[in-house]
Amino acid sequence: MSETELKHAKARAAQLRREIEEHNRRYYEDAAPTISDREYDALYRELVELEQKFPELALRDSPTQRVGGKPLEHFAQITHRTPMLSLENTYSEEEVVEWFQRLQKLLPGQEITVVVEPKVDGVAVSLLFENGALKYAATRGDGRVGDDVTQNVLTIRDVPRQLRGHAPRVLEVRGEVFMTKQGFKKLNEDRAAEGLPLFANPRNSAAGSLKQLDPETVRKRPLGLVLHGIGALEGLEIETYGEGLKLLDKVGLQRSEKTWTCKNVDEILAAIRELDKLRHDFAYETDGAVVKVDSFTQREKAGFTSKAPRWAIAYKYEPERVETKLLDILLQVGRTGTLTPVAALEPVFVSGSTVARATLHNEEEIARKDIRIGDIIVIEKAGEVIPAVVEVKRERRTGSERVFKMPERCPTCGGSVMRDPEQVAVRCINAACPAQLRRRLEHFASRGAMDIEGLGEAMVDQLVSRELAHDVSGIYKLDAEKLATIPRTGEKSITNLLAAIEQSKSRPLWRLLFGLGILHVGATASRTLAEHFHTLDNLMNASADELQRINEIGEVMAASIHRFFNDEQNDALIERLRESGLNFGEKDKYEPKTADEKFAGTTWVITGTLSQPREEIAELILARGGKVAASVSKKTSYVLAGDEAGGKLEKAKTLGVRILSESEFREMLNH
Ligand code: IVH
Asked: What pLDDT is stored for residue 492 in this prediction?
């Protein structure tokens, strides 16, 4: 290769990179592309080819090594071409048989072929390809509108930007993004080594990964995609799901590795049982089998109930149970000081992973089940949640088992404990207990509360053990010097953490209220309080009576709030937060809840299948000042009719009541 050839290649690659970066920015950040996907792909391919030919040009920060632009501030919303529905679950073979019999009645005299597939325990996504190019990938969201997670989905190796061969004009596919079982294990091992909080299960970590705003973080996660449905399809006619699967194979999209085609209940049940044996060897978690009608014409005939299609059903496998030994009962101290017993188990393999802990809830449960330390117990794991103790093998006792007793002193600080008269809980009453402080700080900084990135379990642990924070106000007294005393904390993470802390100062009041961890006050109650009082000072001055007059606030919660704000230490804490400049509600804007002219005083009847549960649609109407009734009468202003609407729609027609389709309704909402 000549010098000049290399020089030219270098210049061209640099130019391509600049152009691609610019188009990425327009596409991903501004959501306003200026070239077609095809043109973009041509630029991209040219760069890939150049980099392949001259490997010295393949820089690490080349757009070919990454997807998209900078991390997004937030996800754009995408309206699905066809709604993403859910499935009806069953847990017994009889119910599967009944389902099939119902289908036979709905499709009299017809031969019904069904496909049985693994039910992948992942996160539902919808991908749209236009002329073979990926247009977007979106999460289910509310079934109608989801988050645009294209950048993140593109980091998954199973997902092509461009389909193989001759792809249909429009192809919308549905599937599950999953984290491999092995990848999940490794990820948690790495996180444990770094002192980061662990993910509960592969499904949660897949969901958490997809929500990351920075695709670079997602790229490092061991994710995969399995497709199990075809949505919109244009430019090609197919009649069965089986043909759909072939199409997926042809265009290079991954679908489930094993499917069964069955023509009667015996075959269906045999497939379900066989899958149960095979599924533990799959790379992803499965929690059941999905049985679905093959023919699209038959699917259409079978139709939908209000929630799910009649043409498919999910059979969930029994959660796995195994025996193990209860080695000890440990105590965890929560943020309000509650001592929660946790079972320490002889590690045992169940539902695809090794477990060493099980939940025990409280002392009462331990006594009721007569669980003793040293017992052989049976634990059950449903999905990937923390297992529960379901049985004690009393006949296997040797006499050396010990009855568990709640300690008189806190296992962390040695302070006295008190039995909560309202609850079964036992609490450590030392407000300075480091275990409580850890939990309080973690809660305050958590995503649902003040959302301070970088202030997770490991960092909180450091702050408490080094006495860098004595309460949540200590977070706002941190500086680079103090943080630099923590080992393995680099300059960059210090800057980021301080910036995140600074940002948190202007979070809305309800987040601060929730973050304070007032006993019994959750996120919803915090929102209610913020909406009612607007500022923290108004709330602090409220009497218990005044609090209780608010609809959603009960007696116990009102008393707890009143107690919290009439405590000297809490007062001092709040003053310190005020000094640090936190938003106490002054910066928040509250939309006055005015009725919508078009809805005020109207009465609605909702019928048929809609893209959202009826209760949620009813909420939308109620929030705008309308009413919702169960049956159609002359007084009905509108009938909102979804698919398969029956009697109510007919009645509306005879009474001359105005009938709206879902899209007309949505339009009315939006204007
Ligand atoms: S078919 C109308 N097939 O499970 C919905 N779904 O609990 C048709 N899922 O919403 C869905 N594996 O997100 C289908 N092989 C499979 C599946 C599957 C997992 C998910 C899907 C669905 C949910 C219902």
From this structure: 92
